[in-house]
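This part of the workshop introduces the protein records we will be handling. An example says more than a description, so a record of this kind follows:
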Amino acid sequence: MILSVNYEFLPKQRTVRTSQVMDLFGIDFEQGRHVVAEGLELPVEQGSILCFTGDSGSGKSSMMRAVCRQIEGVVDVNALELQPVSLIDGLGIKVTEGMALLASCGLGEAHLMLRTPAELSDGQRYRYRIALAISQQPAWIVADEFTATLDRTLAKVIAFNVRKICDRTGIGFLVATTHDDIVSDMNPDVHVVCRLGDEPDVVCRDENVKKKGSVLAGRSGSVKRPESTGRILLGGIIDRTTSASSSM
């Protein structure tokens, strides 16, 4: 997939306040075209994980959305409509499957499964959105600001479980986040590092190479995945993931 992401700066109206800001900092309105990526080649394959990281304003979300426009079967986690029913009912799948899915998203406690989305915290509701998206079995799941509302330990666990769900179900994931602490746990097939004012860096897991500006679409070989030290039970998530254990 060839990716080009850019946009024109919109004309601005000079006012007393904007003039004062420009005089204070010695600048003028930005004009012309802002280029995030030009002719970037990404190895986008079904059943893979693409992770876009970078500071706010670096273009990671714009790049992820550009990929979405070129693929089919996409479910956006943040666009899902949450029904006023219990979590286990909202998934619309077998109870045992629903319990296991909720547990993999950090919602394995029995009392949580019986709540409605309105009764959840923001972090719990986000995790439920991920579970709901997975239950629909789409070709791709898109998640902007991935795990931004979660505490970092739980975020790493969810990222680790996303890798396992991707491998088991064949569902592809496109995620964008400012938090790169989840990358090692997620072990994405393609990691795009977006940078302010510079070309993005692309890391391809299977090729075990890093190229700036472009990466070949072909795959050669594979990299052994780290052994899991995290455990998931229907009652919730316990223990820790690979990277979490190494930091303790």
Q: What stands out?
A: The chain has one domain: 45-246.
